[in-house]
TrEMBL record:
NCBIfam families: RNA_bind_YhbY
Domain of life: Bacteria
Tagged with keyword RNA-binding: yes
Keyword terms, alphabetized: RNA-binding
Cited PANTHER family: RNA-BINDING PROTEIN YHBY
GO molecular function: RNA binding
SMART domains: CRS1_YhbY (SM01103)
Organism expressing this protein natively: Fundicoccus ignavus
Name under which the protein is recorded: Ribosome assembly RNA-binding protein YhbY
Entry keyword annotation includes Translocase: no
Domain CRM: 2-98
Length: 105
């Protein structure tokens, strides 16, 4: 996936502020099922947040980069134990955020 401009990244960070984390990674760590669930969710939402619980052995940066690479997404930001991922949806009916992002290019 291509890099985003500063304006696009800023917009996505601002947009993600109101989102709640929809996944939590615990002591099982990064599993194929977790990656698959994130992939399905990001297809419909384009922008998602997830948390890593304290009992997880993963670091937020490593987990976010691994997931982003596996599902061809971008890590928008990591703060504390929370990461924000973005990927434009391939279905037109879900392309709300990506339409705004493409106009900011």
């Amino acid at each position: 996936m291509e890099k985003l401009s500063k304006a696009q990244s800023k917009y996505l960070r601002k947009e993600s502020h109101n989102h709640k984390p929809i996944f939590q990674m615990g002591k099982l760590g990064l599993t194929e099922v977790f990656i698959q669930q994130v992939d399905e969710a990001i297809e419909k939402r384009e922008l998602i947040k997830f948390n890593i619980l304290q009992n997880s052995s993963e670091t937020i940066q490593d987990a976010a980069e691994t997931i982003a690479e596996a599902i061809d997404a971008l890590v928008i930001q990591t703060v504390g134990n929370t990461a924000v991922l973005y990927r434009p949806s391939s279905r037109e009916k879900y392309q709300k955020i990506s339409q705004v992002v493409s106009k900011l290019a």
